[in-house]
């Protein structure tokens, strides 16, 4: 995976056969250990996404309730939008990357929904926000909203507008519960 992450960070296409050659192993072994090209790219994107979310959580530890949720989500979304590596992967093969990040065919979207759900549940359990619907439903809606704005240029021919995304996100995140 380290070699695959390096490819991603160098804005290179991740291909099992090239990784196998680089690592001095057979293609068959690489496929057996890692899976196909899409699975490896998914794993790399999941690792990078997990780091992004954890970093945004750490940056917003000083906040509570709605402010914390919005701080984490806005930072997470903006970091993704500003990622030259993610944008490079998207531009190189939009259908492939969109299928990996925004469909049920891969675990990526479920992971992001889970991260958002966990954040919402944490703030709700502490009595700092009151959720108008169950945390899973709200997390799914927030995730789809962020995807809609992050990939607006590819999906709808719209320009990416993180300020507008933040405004809409603020409408979804409930006020503090105190």
Give the helices and strands, then pairings.
Layout: H1 2-9, H2 16-23, H3 27-34, H4 37-59, H5 65-81, H6 84-92, H7 94-102, H8 108-125, H9 135-150, H10 152-155, H11 162-172
Helix pairs in contact: 2-3, 4-5, 4-7, 4-8, 5-8, 5-11, 6-7, 8-9, 9-11
Strand content: under 5%
Between the first and last Cα atoms, what is the distance in angstroms? 45 Å
- In quaternary terms, these chains amount to single chain
Strand tally:
0
How many structural domains in the coordinates? Answer: 1
Q: Examine the coordinates and then state which fold CATH places here, giving the name of the CATH topology.
A: Tetracycline Repressor, domain 2
The low-confidence parts are: none
SS element count, helices: 11
Would you tell me the overall average pLDDT?
90
Give the CA-based shape: elongated
CATH class: Mainly Alpha
Structural class: mainly alpha
H/E element sequence: HHHHHHHHHHH
Radius of gyration: 18 Å
Concise description?
Residues 65-173 form the QsdR TetR regulatory C-terminal domain. The chain has 178 residues and is mainly alpha-helical.
